[in-house]
Write a structure and sequence with these properties.
CATH class: Alpha Beta
Number of helices: 7
CATH superfamily: Poly-gamma-glutamate hydrolase, zinc-binding motif
Helix content: 25-40%
Strand order of the largest sheet: 1-3-2-4-7-5-6
């Protein structure tokens, strides 16, 4: 099998991740598991029963001596998908360019992005499967983030956590990439979605270097925290089984705005 440059990058990231010390965040004390590794090692949990991991890494191949071909530059992440932070799995797939039900490229002409998600599959009690983003040590998530220039990480929060009135539909835009944040804020607000800079909300601003969204080649990324009401308004039937088949216009508007912000950012990132 022919090795690729991306494969070597992934191995290097995994090796480096194993030697790093994880930094706690404000939400760590509420987590039952200090890392994904600890969660996966719990014999009382079953993959495919309690939780699942889904990802897609697109192939890199360039064997032309005179031409240079575009590579995947942005990864989409949902560290708390399924029943943990409802709606983030579906958003992850759609922003990556895939229909959340059929996984057919949508729109058909692309572009598509790499993605990774961890999902709670239980009918109840998914919250205890939450691993805070600074402690996300899943090797595939680390490799995909570490081999990408950019990352978008999707999360759910309550209005109270965001310092907003109950029932507010809004998204808090955080992360360490200030340019990316500006593009996301501009595109989301232009789409009629209330987007707020998360810089003043320490628990939700996603600026820790160890946050999975910031473990990119550039050491920066973007984090989107959607309030419960905003996510609920995106689906006709807000259950894990039905969300992927009942998306509303609001869902599609959010996805289109986020994908446009990604395209804006990538257009300014010229490959060497």
């Amino acid at each position: 099998m022919r090795s690729t440059r991306r494969g070597f990058l992934g191995l290097a990231v995994i090796a480096a991740a194993a030697s790093r010390t994880l930094t706690a965040s404000a939400t760590t004390t509420a987590d039952r598991y200090p890392s994904n590794t600890a969660l996966y090692a719990d014999p009382s949990l079953g993959e495919g029963v309690d939780y699942s991991r889904r990802y897609r890494r697109h192939e890199w191949f360039d064997d032309d001596l005179s031409q240079r071909y575009a590579v995947q530059r942005t990864v989409i992440l949902a560290p708390h998908g399924g029943g943990i932070e409802a709606g983030t799995s579906e958003l992850c797939l759609a922003i990556a360019g895939y229909h959340p039900a059929s996984l057919v490229p949508t729109p058909a002409e692309g572009p598509v992005h790499d993605y990774w998600m961890f999902e709670g599959l239980r009918s109840t009690g998914n919250a205890e499967l939450h691993v805070t983003s600074t402690n996300c040590d899943d090797p595939v998530a680390r490799a995909l983030a570490g081999g990408s220039l950019n990352a978008v990480s999707l999360h759910g929060c309550t209005a109270a956590q965001a310092g907003l009135a109950d029932g507010t539909e809004a998204v808090l835009v955080g992360g360490r990439n200030s340019t990316f944040k500006t593009k996301l804020l501009t595109r989301l607000n232009a789409a009629g979605i209330r987007a707020i800079d998360a810089a003043s909300i320490p628990d939700l601003n996603g600026d820790e270097p160890t946050n999975i969204a910031n473990r990119t080649l550039l050491g920066t990324g973007a984090q989107l925290e959607l309030t419960t009401s905003l996510r609920a308004a995106m689906f006709d039937t807000n259950t894990r089984a039905d969300r992927k088949n009942t998306t509303r216009d609001l869902f599609r508007s959010f996805v289109s705005a986020t994908r446009a912000a990604v395209a804006d950012l990538e257009a300014a990132q010229l490959l060497p």
